[in-house]
Amino acid sequence: MADIAKLVEELSKLTVMEAAELAKALEEEWGVSAAAAVAVAGPAGGGGDAAAAEEQTEFDVILTGDGGKKIQVIKEVRAITGLGLGEAKALVEGAPKPLKEGVAKAEAEEIKGKIEAAGGTVELK
Predict the structure, then answer these.
(1) Using H for helix, E for strand and C for coil, what is the string for the chain?
(2) Distance CA 27, CA 36 (A)
(3) Which of 54, 72, 83, 123 has fewest C-beta within 10 Å?
(4) Is the backbone peptide bond immediately before 43 cis, with ω within 30 degrees of 0?
(5) Is the pTM of this model over 0.70?
(6) Cβ-contact 92, 66 below 8 angstroms
(7) Per residue in 60-88, pLDDT tens?
(8) Weakest mean pLDDT among 15-19, 83-87, 110-114
């Protein structure tokens, strides 16, 4: 069992690209998809929630407020989403609302930085 814990610890150190390469290599070697392997291995993990949080690759960017700077936040929301003025205004005024869903961590962090620089507040899920 200690060997499995050590293996999990080592795998946690992989970059996203390395993990993708590993998944592809395992799919070729064993003839199964990574999704099937995760479905089988997932429930046996016990601490699956903590592991899933560490391995999350897609994020939802949720606008939680305008921080009192509605106009600046609306401008930034328009630039990020491509929405029209009325739609962006409605999104900001209706916060909390999702700005983008299923984006990579880097893009989510970039969006969060832009909104926070404009005065708004953002949550990543």
Answers:
(1) CHHHHHHHHHHHCCCHHHHHHHHHHHHHHHCCCHHHHHHHHCHHHCCHHHHHHHHCCEEEEEEEECCCCHHHHHHHHHHHHCCCHHHHHHHHHCCCEEEEEEEEHHHHHHHHHHHHHHCCEEEEC
(2) 10
(3) 54
(4) no
(5) no
(6) yes
(7) 899 999 988 999 999 999 998 888 999 98
(8) 15-19
